């Protein structure tokens, strides 16, 4: 919205600053933060009144979590509102990447909201059927991947024309970029629609599994957002992309503004989520934030790098998979409790210790992910 002020730069030279992505990204952070800080208390009070007893606590979870009963959930609404308002204010709204990533973020947020709604109203720690939820996530992610592939490829928009599908089936848009190598691509053709959908939906559910302790998920999400804000900027800049031997994807630099908005909204949420938490983000937030990161990774062609930067989320997901498979096949558990953060709680680590050490791991993994930009 404010980007349009660039059109007046001929009359007022100072307005020329609005064309710079770095400036608008920097402004998106405090804008989202202040929005959440201003409206956060009212949202928390409203959710507390509407939910009554708050988020149901897992009966099979750590007993130390029972003291959190009564804490409202759906705090992701605060984050989504801050991200949306700040992005619409500072991003170039003619950029299709911004709208596609926002579509994924808000759609996943809606799916998570309905899941949270069922948990609160049914007073159960389980929402609606997992297969139904996953099918909805895959559908949204597949459609978004198709749009991302089309935006980054020349050709007609009419899907009833063969040229539309021929364009999508070749080139960078339908390939998986391999880090540490300058030009290695794994071509998938139209099957990349399914690959991209799995990446986006997988990222959403990985963050969702990580969200189990106060502040545990939001800080790694902000770290990943900062990392992909930088990646979006360099990938969308032809000079930087050429210097670093990256695959240039025109227009993705604008996603840096969205990443900035996510960081600001995340900081605002953390203010209220810091122990003892006044509110939980719930599936409304965790599913949306993970989906957002996944969509940005697909847009910037750094899908594998997401697995490195978001390695903490990957570890949490693997711990659940390993636990389930091991118990079904052998009747034995590998971890004392899954996801992984509960395992360390059961070993006697304090919640704050688990959270801070996991944050440290997230920082190290983000640095490793950034290293892939240069090591080629």
Break the fold down into its secondary structure elements and pairings.
Layout: H1 21-51, H2 76-90, H3 96-122, H4 130-151, H5 162-168, E1 175-177, E2 185-187, H6 192-210, H7 218-235, H8 238-243, H9 255-273, H10 282-299, H11 303-309, H12 311-330, H13 340-346, H14 351-371
Antiparallel strand pairs: 1-2
Helix pairs in contact: 1-2, 1-9, 2-3, 2-9, 2-10, 3-4, 3-10, 4-6, 4-10, 6-10, 6-12, 7-9, 7-10, 7-14, 10-11, 11-12, 11-14
What does this protein look like?
With 376 residues, this protein is an all-alpha fold. It has one domain (23-371). The chain contains 14 helices and two strands; from the N terminus they run H-H-H-H-H-E-E-H-H-H-H-H-H-H-H-H. It has helices at 21-51, 76-90, 96-122, 130-151, 162-168, 192-210, 218-235, 238-243, 255-273, 282-299, 303-309, 311-330, 340-346, 351-371; strands spanning 175-177, 185-187. The two termini are 37 Å apart.
Key terms for this structure?
376 residues; mainly alpha; 14 helices
Helix content: 55-70%
Radius of gyration equals 21 Å
Strand arrangement, major sheet: 1-2
Q: Helix/strand-derived class?
A: mainly alpha
Number of domains: 1
End-to-end distance, in Å?
37 Å
Order of helices and strands: HHHHHEEHHHHHHHHH
Look at the structure and give the mean pLDDT: 88
How many beta-strand segments?
Answer: 2
Q: Provide the low-confidence segments as ranges.
A: none
- Our count of helices gives 14
What overall geometry do the principal axes of the alpha carbons give?
Answer: globular
Strand content: under 5%
> Major beta sheet, specifics?
2 strands, antiparallel
């Amino acid at each position: 919205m404010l980007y349009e002020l660039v059109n007046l730069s001929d009359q007022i030279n100072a307005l020329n600053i609005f064309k710079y992505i770095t400036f608008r990204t920097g402004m998106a952070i405090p804008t989202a933060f202040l929005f959440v800080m201003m409206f956060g208390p009212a949202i928390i009070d409203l959710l507390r009144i509407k939910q009554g007893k708050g988020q149901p606590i897992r009966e099979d979870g750590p007993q130390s979590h029972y003291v959190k009963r009564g804490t409202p959930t759906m705090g992701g609404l605060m984050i989504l509102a801050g991200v949306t308002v700040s992005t619409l204010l500072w991003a170039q709204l003619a950029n299709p990447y911004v709208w596609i990533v926002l579509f994924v973020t808000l759609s996943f947020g809606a799916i998570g909201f309905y899941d949270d709604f069922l948990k609160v109203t049914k007073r159960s720690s389980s929402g609606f059927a997992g297969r139904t939820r996953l099918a909805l996530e895959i559908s949204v992610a597949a459609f978004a991947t198709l749009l991302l592939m089309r935006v980054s490829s020349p050709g007609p928009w009419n899907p009833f024309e063969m040229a539309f599908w021929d364009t999508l089936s070749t080139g960078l848009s339908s390939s998986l970029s391999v880090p540490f190598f300058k030009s290695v691509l794994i071509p998938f053709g139209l099957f990349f629609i399914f690959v991209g959908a799995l990446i986006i939906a997988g990222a959403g559910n990985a963050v969702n599994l990580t969200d189990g302790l106060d502040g545990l998920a939001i800080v790694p999400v902000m770290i990943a957002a900062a990392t992909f804000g930088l990646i979006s900027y360099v990938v969308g800049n032809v000079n930087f992309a050429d210097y670093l031997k990256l695959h240039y994807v025109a227009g993705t630099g604008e996603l840096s503004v969205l990443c900035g908005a996510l960081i600001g909204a995340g900081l605002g949420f953390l203010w209220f989520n810091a122990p003892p938490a006044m509110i939980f983000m719930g599936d409304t937030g965790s599913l949306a934030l993970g989906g957002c990161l996944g969509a940005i990774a697909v847009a910037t062609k750094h899908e594998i790098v997401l697995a490195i930067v978001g390695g903490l989320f990957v570890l949490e997901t693997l711990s659940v998979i390993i636990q389930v498979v091991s118990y079904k096949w052998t009747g034995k558990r590998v971890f004392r409790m899954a996801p992984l953060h509960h395992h360390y709680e059961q070993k006697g680590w304090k919640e704050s210790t688990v959270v801070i050490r996991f944050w440290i791991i997230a920082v190290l993994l983000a640095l490793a992910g950034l290293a892939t930009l240069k090591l080629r």
